[in-house]
Amino acid sequence: MWASTHNESLKEKMSAVVSALSACQKEIGSGYLSAFPTEQFDRLEALIPVWAPYYTIHKILAGLLDQYTYADNAEALRMTTWMVEYFYNRVQNVIKKYSIERHWQTLNEEAGGMNDVLYKLFCITQDPKHLMLAHLFDKPCFLGLLALQADDISGFHSNTHIPIVIGSQMRYEVTGDQLHKTISMFFMDIVNSSHTYATGGTSVGEFWSDPKRLASNLDSNTEESCTTYNMLKVSRHLFRWTKEIAYADYYERSLTNGVLGIQRGTEPGVMIYLLPLAPGSSKERSYHHWGTPSDSFWCCYGTGIESFSKLGDSIYFEEEGKYPGVYIIQYISSRLDWKSGQIVVNQKVDPVVSWDPYLRVTLTFSSKGSGLTTSLNLRIPTWTSSNGAKATLNGQDLPLPSPGNFLSVTKTWSSDDKLTIQLPLTLRTEAIQDDRPEYASIQAILYGPYVLAGHSIGDWDITESATSLSDWITPIPASYNSQLITFTQEYGNTKFVLTNSNQSITMEKFPKSGTDAALHATFRLILNDSSGSEFSSLNDFIGKSVMLEPFDSPGMLVIQHETDDELVVTDSFIAQGSSVFHLVAGLDGGDRTVSLESETYKGCFVYTAVNLQSSESTKLGCISESTEAGFNNAASFVIEKGLSEYHPISFVAKGANRNFLLAPLLSLRDESYTVYFDFQS
């Protein structure tokens, strides 16, 4: 984070942490540094069960080495080499006392990226001990399988072994050993083709299961966040070596769907361990649930915090050559001070929305006056279409390559230059990685790189009756957010909201935002005529005839039940005139209240119990001489802005039994959702 921001407060804090750890290391006196004693390693080497001590050692080493690499902290490098000296001697003693096999057996306990950090350290020190120790952490029983190109990773603990592949990639970079380049490419191929969800994530219950059997894995324990963090590293290396679009596409998909959605909205330090993908899942109901900023220290908290600190590390890639080049593989608003190119590149990305299906990017430049010719290479992702794609330089059209290639522009850039690109965002479905015919109908829905989740407590049936996705998946217009409301009442010291409770309308206690209860307490007011669709204030609805559509049940309406006075939710196609209400000033005479009068039964109003409690049914009651005292208050509601709102990327999908409200998986907090749908023809 400091390397991206150069924030002085961050530098003071991180320097203080290094100093404090240095004092601890000096006090211990052996080079060892950890919050747990060395007896943990005695147990590990004796093959007595112990919880992953090398995993933590790797994190400490990696953090210290980053302090040197990014912030030039020489003390951190000294601490790192002293720690490594301790473990070099320790591993040598294990091999001498037992055998090298015993050391490899210790690697069956999760060891993190020990080989990775040791190869990086060797690049700095050129100490052969560091290279030797790195080799000793290249787990042969796993890398050997990949070297033989055996598609047999099932049963391996995912996050134990992905870091070993990352270390193998560093071995290739350090030694030039082509075998380790081949290993990582093969590994990425089998994970991507047989073990990856539409989100880009992998694993179930932290392990890899049988290849192409993911339909059996859709539960609350899918996609450990650490594995996504580490697979991004694998793909980053592969892109640097090959410049293949597939690796850049993978990075975008995993970052968008597997990283940005593991934090609860914009609440810092509130993260999840696993991203559940079962029908009717919720991040809040995932394993460990949401963590807390100060009391949760799972492995996925460390990687999660780091992921959000380095969102900018794979937007731009630099290439040397006759003309210095930059590859832009992520479209994220950002600024690049390209020193070797002697220009500043400013990237501005327009917000993505569902009702205007294009990704629009504008690049402007600040020249440092060198007259240097450089090349910009812009990724044309595989998810886009040539139809409607466009690029311009200073208003002049540029020839665009087909999706899956780079648009390359070489010139001497000036401060007057402006490069724009417009890429169509296409809706598509993607079958789950499962080769059993009975699961061929299970598919995810994507919009460009975004995985769309449907608000659902478990239903997932979609009838695919049209030839084009746009025939049964339609965007939600921007104007709809101005039509979202919540009706509230207060009784005593408790605030209640009108709620869709399993297709019955009840009053419930005021909910927390980002929850199913907040969704169920939000309704869209639909005008019963065509006199406009966007309103500047909620008061604009007063005096209008309206229908109430539950937020997460598009196409359904609130009506009076046929056999009694209770309000229920039913399909708009079968709803009769009793679904229309006249929104009038509150019967209680309050300044901010409204009442809902039935258009069909004049003088009859939606009302709640006089002595209001949770789960009370709402009814349609008519004013008469026998109307109970307090009816006017019970029929009056405060109309407020909806507790929920449509994400800018929202759609309605026609289901077999109901319609689904779709939104990006990354945008959901505690709400129930379904990612994979069962498409029945």
Automatic annotation (TrEMBL):
Taxonomic path: Eukaryota, Viridiplantae, Streptophyta, Embryophyta, Tracheophyta
- Record-linked SUPFAM superfamilies: AbfB domain
Q: Where is the Non-reducing end beta-L-arabinofuranosidase-like GH127 middle domain?
A: 326-425
One of its Pfam families is Glyco_hydro127M
| GO molecular function annotations of the record | alpha-L-arabinofuranosidase activity
Q: Which GO terms describe its biological process?
A: L-arabinose metabolic process
Annotated Non-reducing end beta-L-arabinofuranosidase-like GH127 catalytic domain residues? 1-313
Name it.
Alpha-L-arabinofuranosidase B arabinose-binding domain-containing protein
| Cited PANTHER family | PROLINE-TRNA LIGASE (DUF1680)
